[in-house]
Write a structure and sequence with these properties.
100 residues, alpha+beta, 4-stranded mixed beta sheet
Length: 100
């Protein structure tokens, strides 16, 4: 399975931190993926850091799309830290995988 990352509004340090966080949790997600009847073709992540001081929303948003042969599973997270937003996203993605 191929994994693709897209970053918006992030500097190199932010990207490295998100990828480091991913490495810490990917084993759990890979276990869930191995239990799926169809083999995922790829997983796409989008990570956005909002820097507009006038925006009252969360500072980070994350999105994921897991592409299976006949289905795409999507999830998202948003929080004031990259780690928390990624954890929300992964929790939702894991829940949706379990539902399959």
């Amino acid at each position: 399975m191929k994994i693709y990352w897209t970053f918006s509004g992030c500097d190199d340090a932010d990207e490295m931190e998100v990828e480091r966080l991913w490495e810490q949790v990917q084993i759990e997600l890979e276990g869930k993926l191995n239990a799926l009847p169809a083999v995922p073709s790829h997983l796409r992540f989008a990570v956005e850091q909002h820097s507009d001081p006038n925006d009252a929303g969360p500072l980070w948003t994350t999105h994921a799309a897991l592409h299976l042969p006949a289905l795409t599973i999507v999830a998202e997270g948003s929080a004031d830290s990259a780690g928390e937003a990624l954890n929300q996203l992964l929790a939702e993605l894991a829940q949706r995988i379990d539902q399959r």
